[in-house]
UniProtKB/TrEMBL annotation:
One Pfam family from the record: AhpC-TSA
Name of this chain's protein: Thioredoxin family protein
InterPro entries xref list: AhpC/TSA, PRX-like1, Thioredoxin-like_sf, Thioredoxin_domain
GO molecular function, one term: antioxidant activity
Thioredoxin domain span: 9-144
Amino acid sequence: MALKHTPVCEFGLPAPSFRLEATDGRWLDLEACRGPNGLLVMFICNHCPYVKSIREKLVRDCAELQALGIGCVAIMSNDPADYPEDSFENMAQVARQYGFPFPYVIDPTQSVARAYGAVCTPDFFGYNDGLELQYRGRLDAAGADADAPDMPRELFEAMKQVAETGRGPAEQVPSMGCSIKWTQGKD
């Protein structure tokens, strides 16, 4: 597991388009995932301890964000040949087990992760209603500690602000997690 931190938010950067298959068999694009007040794009996977420790929080926060008009989508870009726990079949199982209220899509060519500049799991990209980047930070300060006491909900509060004002907070703490598992010879 190679620990990575996300870069600083590049405010206003446009959301790259995509068309990817979801675990429920639908093909979704950027427009289908966005909400009237913005979009949260999350790069996650099944095997990463950082992601495993926040799944319940993601379900809670995304359900509440969707009620505020923020669309949410999770993208899995790891190489499942080297990380079988991240297979499409296992993605579908995890989405059902945790009741993901958002689509969980696979990026088999890793082109979407590259277009976004994703570096780790989890990696969060929060966009306003114009699909301009406003948040590139962490979920909260707990990291991979699933037993940490309640922390301020940094991602939720930032995206709530984006829904209400169109702008993310000036101060953001980078997310950290396991590196994206690139296909051999392509990283």
